[in-house]
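hey so i finally got around to running the thing on that chain from the lab meeting. sorry it took forever, my laptop kept dying and i had to restart like 3 times. anyway pasting the input first so we r on the same page abt which one it is
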Amino acid sequence: MDIQIYTTQEDLNQSFTTWFKEIVTEKETVTVALSGGATPRSLFDYWARLPEGEIDWKKIKFFWGDERCVPPTDNDSNYKMTKDHLFNFLPIPQENIFRILGENDPEVEAKRYSELLDNELETKKGVPSFDILMLGMGDDGHTASIFPHEISRWDHPDNCVTATHPVTGQIRVSLTGKVINAAQQVVFLVTGENKADKVAEIIGQPQEAAKKYPAALVQPDSDKLLWFLDQKAAQKLR
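ok and heres what got predicted. didnt touch it at all, straight out
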């Protein structure tokens, strides 16, 4: 586990981008699973401002770790957030964007996206494997859209499952644990003091945390797990 702590969101964005560029430069094609939320939104704004040619966006294929079951024009849509803050500003071929169709029937879409991952990604031991998988973490310890009250969904045999937000009841489609842990590089992007308790518990007491929090079950087979934290999220680490 590699833990990086930054004073500001801008410092985090800059450092993550340096790391990201190295991987993109080394490979002919890079498959990336994106996450939603405020921290990736800030990163996407940073990427949108980069000088032209800084990153070869045509080499990157974009997927998502989860999606809310809403149309792509809905403000809750992770795809819409990415489009508004990143895709609208970059020369990304449409055929390189593989969104989860939140407007579809959730169960049908989970099955379709599972099959799409089988067809589009390299596999490791029969499991689709992203080059880079970006994750956030909720202040309840959830990641992707696997929530603590549905932690058993993590071990579902399919690539994707439907999930339910514990408060709103909103249905989502999410990657499962086997796909998350099959990625070559797994990166948590976590900011804000409301995440500090769970960050400290998951990093400091991983075995106990794994019984309660899906985020603690992120243990990639590649052993390449990075945490990019701001100081507020990291303030309770010892």
